[in-house]
Amino acid sequence: MTVANPNFVEEVKKSNEFNASACMNCGVCSAVCPMGIELLPRKLFRYVLLGFKDKVLENKETIYSCLLCRMCEANCPAKVHIAENVRLLRYYLNKNVFRV
Amino acid sequence: MSDRRIGVYICHCGGNISDYVNVDKVKEAVQDEPGVVVAKTSMFTCSDAGQQDIIRDIKEQNLDGLVVASCSPKLHLHTFRDVAKRAGLNPYQYTQVNIREQCSWTHTDDHEGATEKAIRLVRAGINRTNLTEPLHSIKINTVPKVLIIGAGIAGLRAAIGLNDIGIAVYLAEKEQEPGGWVAGFGKMYPHGRNGKEIINQLVNEVKKRDSITLFTQAEVIDKTGSVGDFRVKIRVRDQEEIALHVGAIITATGFNAYKPHEDEYGYGMDGVVTLAEFKKLLDKSEGKIIRQGKEIKNVVYVYCVGSRQGDEAEDGNRYCSRYCCNAAVHSSIQALEKNPQVHQYHLFRDMRTYGKFELLLNDALKRGSIFLKFDENEPPQITKGANGTLNVTVKDLLTFGEEVEIEADLVVLATGMVPKENQKLVDILKLPVGRDRFFNEIHPKLRPVETVVDGVYICGTCQGPKNSAESVASALAAVSQSAAILKKGYVELEPLIAMVNREACTWCGECETACPYTAISKEQVQGKEVAKIHEALCKGCGGCIPICPNHALDLKGYTDGQMKAMIDGLLKEKF
Predict the structure, then answer these.
(1) Record: contact A50-B399, CB cut-off 8 A
(2) Nearest to A21 among B343, B365, B404 (CB)
(3) Cβ proximity of B100 and B73 under 8 Å
(4) Total Cβ atoms within 10 A of residue A79
(5) CATH code at position B524
(6) Over the stretch B504-547, which tens digit does the pLDDT of each residue have?
(7) How much is the ipTM here?
């Protein structure tokens, strides 16, 4: 059981515009990912939207293993800015977790 | 032997029939049947040339009966009745024999058997035609007035629509004020106009017009007569009874909101409300949404409450209520407009923001509403939380079954539509009620506002869940359908109805009880009580005929004599 936290997404958003609302859970992003990243972008973004901060922090490694190649973004039918969202999450982690 | 002059036409249907049925053999087998003077085969009987050939034969050979063995009467009964009419032959002297759908198409593997069956069927048709008599459609003059029951958005709009075409309207509303549900609505999608404003506009228009009479606190207590010529009694304010004479009746009695039962998604707990209750709260909120002195910051919506219920719910509502997804999403946008800080979680089974309402959903998503999908077998649980909040737990399928706990100030149940309890009206108007307990149309696509009771129409949500725009569209459909019969000035009904042999009838009343259309009553003829068939009410269903202990009833066009003759025709050859 994870508690929804409406403030987390606001925290992430503060850095810039995080937007994954348009995601319809189709899975194209995962299918085209050259890294075969285990944590699917759609799942990661749901964690952010629902405010599962702990789950996001647990997946730091994955967030940094993304190549930012934008293969997913180019193929996303809902035009979610996936790579941009990942970049924003890194920015959040850099600032709030690694304090750099 | 027969003194009839019957023409028989056996159709190839371009091979649809003749590929499997030997049509020449059929012709040979029936051409010497009693009464037959012409027997032919034809490549396409329904073609212009085919029709002309029949017309020529009827005129030149002086035919007084016609049999076409071709497709289903559903397709071409009226085509060939019309052929008969154009040739000067009474259209009810025509019999259509179906040797396509019920013979060639079903017996493609047995040509001989199909041919033999076709012969039997055609012979039966000839035997029936030997006993036909000229019949004439029943003509009823219509009264150019309509009674509309229910003055919600559908009833009001229908009243104005009918009046625009010059038809007088009586509008009967059960409540104290006209307007129905929409009168209680705030901003509506997509124009943002207030429901109350829209209703006021309609009511003002209705009041302006001399030939629309609005009765409030009115109920229908009696109806007699038939299409084009109804006598209706209404009771107003529990006292005055008013007799109305109208040509058609439109039922626009609307719906009830589904009321969750105790404990359904925590209903009954403080902070769990229905969508209608939430909309009221929103409408009176300025800026922050305050309920009982407390600011509402986190809202959880639960969708499909009272709709799409599974088999486990006895008498459950299996249908989708159609309006609730749109209404709940719309409300969430309204809430954000009042207070952009409010957090909203939508727990849905499937989102059905069909058509242009998709834009609403996109808008809600963009503004940060979060949508969580739950499985119907694992519905969200709602319990009391700390500090007067509510704890909502749900397994979110969109996060791969993750269990989510949400702390909510308010839980909004998106409740569906249920049919109104209207048993009295159903009994009086004989309205057809479906398994879902809404009123039923004759044909969902082609005759969507007509009922099996001629001259009685349905529109709006009494027929099933609709939004207000759809209700108005169906109201205007009812306007055009009722006006079509009333503006013509008369209606013509099929003469294939029951008839009474007064000598044989001893009036026992059995037929009156058996008749589902109240078309049979008692009358005195030369001092004798006999059954009387009300021509305009009888549908020719035949339900009364086998009931009669004295065999005093018969069905025109399908008499016992004709039926026996057909059976004899079918069984002429041994098996």
Answers:
(1) yes
(2) B365
(3) no
(4) 9
(5) 3.30.70.20
(6) 999 999 999 999 888 999 999 999 999 999 998 898 999 999 99
(7) 0.86
